[in-house]
């Protein structure tokens, strides 16, 4: 039998037109696993929907349903297997790097791929970079592979994420450049990484404002660049973040080098990034 072109075609005998409409077409693929959200009205058809997704995408081995939102400090989510092999671990390829992840125990989103590469391209040879919320090491490893930094200190509080980060650093041959550190970003910076970095990454929009003072403390005396992630609401996506930043470090020279929408998050709400040059620590 020919492979169906898309989910709609694969499910046309199983779901009504209204149900197909409700299902939509949005899902993520991470390695050989697909993750999708389902409305309650389609839960009794979840297994068939999962199998259909596997028919459409021949290299999938597992389909997971996201049961709840990404939540808590560690940004993890509850998942259930609805088709294929019972597993949540996979390896994802991105810009020539391999990232092994357990989707139920660590944060990972393929939707940040373009943003990770954008930041990697900004890094100049010899820079010391500190990633305050490094997860399984995606930004850090991309930076080490595509630019030529001296060090990329890579902190995460989730011990499971740090285990995967260590594995990913080895597999991508970035040991010696990417330095995984397990712990709370504030405590690690205060104890070990104070005043060293040319560039700081803060890829945790939910808590970035709480850690902005830590990012500034992480920079060397000459200052440097902070990639500050936040949420922005229409119609003014960036100005509230900028206002917060100016008030958080009064008297410091701050220049907005770049600003981008990373992705849409909810109606009128966006995940945004501001690239800031802080002129002195
Ligand atoms: C949104 S994820 C970013 C993951 C990664 N940068 C990526 O692109 O895949 C945020 C990460 O911050 C970590 N985290 C949360 N609070 C933290 C803290 N206080 N100190 C260090 N890491 C923290 C979480 O465990 C999670 O892995």
Automatic annotation (TrEMBL):
Q: Which reaction is this enzyme known to catalyze?
A: guanosine(37) in tRNA + S-adenosyl-L-methionine = N(1)-methylguanosine(37) in tRNA + S-adenosyl-L-homocysteine + H(+)
GO BP field: tRNA N1-guanine methylation
Which EC class is the enzyme in? Answer: transferase
Q: Which residues form the signal peptide?
A: none
Superkingdom: Archaea
Q: Might you report a single GO cellular component term?
A: cytoplasm
GO molecular function list: tRNA (guanine(37)-N1)-methyltransferase activity
Keywords linked to the UniProt accession:
Cytoplasm, Methyltransferase, S-adenosyl-L-methionine, Transferase, tRNA processing
Report domain SAM-dependent methyltransferase TRM5/TYW2-type positions: 27-280
So what EC number does this one have?
A: 2.1.1.228
Name of protein:
tRNA (guanine(37)-N(1))-methyltransferase
Q: Which organism is it from?
A: candidate division MSBL1 archaeon SCGC-AAA259A05
């Amino acid at each position: 039998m020919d492979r169906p072109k898309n989910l709609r075609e694969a499910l046309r005998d199983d779901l009504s037109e209204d149900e197909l409409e409700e299902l939509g077409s949005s899902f993520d693929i991470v390695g050989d696993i697909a993750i999708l959200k389902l409305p309650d009205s389609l839960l009794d058809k979840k297994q068939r929907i999962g199998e259909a997704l596997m028919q459409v995408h021949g290299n999938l081995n597992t389909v997971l349903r996201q049961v709840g939102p990404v939540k808590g400090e560690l940004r993890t989510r509850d998942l259930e297997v609805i088709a294929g092999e019972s597993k949540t671990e996979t390896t994802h390829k991105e810009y020539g790097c391999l990232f092994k992840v357990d989707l139920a125990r660590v944060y990972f989103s393929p939707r940040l791929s373009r943003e990770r590469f954008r930041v990697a391209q900004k890094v100049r040879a010899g820079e010391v970079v500190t990633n305050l919320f490094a997860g399984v090491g995606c930004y850090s490893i991309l930076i080490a592979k595509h630019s030529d930094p001296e060090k990329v200190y890579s902190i995460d509080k989730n011990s499971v994420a740090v285990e995967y980060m260590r594995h990913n650093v080895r597999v991508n041959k970035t040991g010696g450049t990417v330095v995984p550190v397990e712990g709370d970003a504030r405590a690690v910076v205060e104890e070990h990484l104070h005043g060293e970095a040319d560039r700081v990454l803060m890829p945790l929009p939910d808590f970035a404002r709480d850690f902005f003072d830590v990012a500034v403390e992480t920079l060397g005396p000459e200052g440097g660049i902070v990639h500050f992630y936040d949420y922005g609401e229409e119609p003014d996506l960036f100005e509230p973040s900028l206002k917060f930043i100016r008030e958080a470090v009064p008297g410091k020279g701050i220049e907005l080098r770049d600003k981008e929408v990373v992705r849409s998050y909810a109606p009128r709400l966006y995940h945004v990034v501001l690239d800031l040059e802080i002129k002195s620590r």
